[in-house]
Amino acid sequence: MRPETPSAPLPEGCASGQILSWTWQRFAELGADGVYDMLALRAKVFILEQGPFLDPDGLDRHSGHLLGRDEDGALRAYLRVVDPGVKYDEPSIGRVVLDKPLRGSGLADLLVALGVRHCVAAWGPTGISISAQAHLQSFYGRHGFMPVGQGYLEDGIPHVGMWRPPERGGNAAKPSPT
């Protein structure tokens, strides 16, 4: 496990009583309990709240996983970063999830910011791709993501491809819409 300590203060509006402990792990490092916790939180949001779909999609084994646990060790926030060349040419952030009671606290912004920071630290100045639920386009826009191509349905939910240009010094060519 690699602890992730944010170097910047928590986003404005983040409830100070809801501080989470952040760790990055590869799939093989998660262990049985970590995989169970990851799938349970994702199922609670992506399946029970949003409708059925096949969550284990074969990409978890090729991803880094950011886990946000509360003081009792319960997983409350999660995202994965799929390695470049697996889903897209560049790294991809996905399965961004925050437990319902924590939504609106500012922790979702911190979660995505840590994901972006991880991509830059791991692969240098590169673009980042996501497949965002359409209603979250402005949320991801706050993090530098721009829409690419037309909207589409994924698992019956409207989505839009989005791309974040690389930090200075990287390849700024926009990927083709898929």
Explain this structure.
Helix content is 25%, strand content 30%. The protein has a single domain, classed as Aminopeptidase. The chain is of the alpha+beta class. It is built from 3 helices and 8 strands, in the order ββαβββαβαββ. It is globular. The protein has a 5-stranded antiparallel sheet with strand order 1-2-3-4-5, with helices on both faces. Strands 6-8-7 form a 3-stranded antiparallel sheet.
The assigned CATH architecture is 3-Layer(aba) Sandwich
What is the β-strand count?
8
Helices and strands, in N-to-C order? EEHEEEHEHEE
Overall domain count: 1
Q: What is Rg?
A: 15 Å
**Rough outline:** globular
CATH class: Alpha Beta
Distance between the termini: 34 Å
Largest beta-sheet details: 5 strands, antiparallel
CATH superfamily: Gcn5-related N-acetyltransferase (GNAT)
**Strand adjacency order, main sheet:** 1-2-3-4-5
Structural class: alpha+beta
Helix content: 25-40%
- How much of the polypeptide forms β-strand, as a percent range? 25-35%
Q: What fold name goes in the CATH topology slot?
A: Aminopeptidase
| Poorly predicted sequence stretches spanning 5 or more consecutive residues | 1-17
Give the overall pLDDT as a whole number: 81
Summarize it:
This protein has 178 residues and is an alpha+beta fold. It has helices at 27-49, 107-123, 137-141, and strands spanning 2-4, 21-26, 63-69, 75-82, 92-98, 128-133, 146-154, 157-164. The chain has a single domain, classed as 3-Layer(aba) Sandwich (Aminopeptidase), CATH 3.40.630.30.
